[in-house]
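Researcher: Go.
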Amino acid sequence: MDEFTQAVFDAAYSARPQRNLRLLFGALLILKHALRGFAFSWPLYLLSAAGLALPGKFAWVFLLLLIPAVALSGYILAKGLREDYRAVVRGRLLKFGDVKSGLLGAGR
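Model: Structure:
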């Protein structure tokens, strides 16, 4: 890319509508991967909730399952967000119609 083309791209990329679209895409990707992480680790959340419902002095052991549940969900969120943002958003001029293809993964 020559200097003029790069300067025009940089000006368009840093414009307010593009920043707002990148923010919107980022928020939607966070929601997508947070739900994906929760859907993958819901049994751990359910078992840790059983610790609240069970009587007895060892019910707290079930609450320890929250640690791997949150860690697994966080890992899925971070890895998926990083990969999708890099593949769909970073370094591109976005249009509002790209939201669907970006969330479904067709924009790769």
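Model: The CA atoms of residues 25 and 99 lie 7 Å apart.
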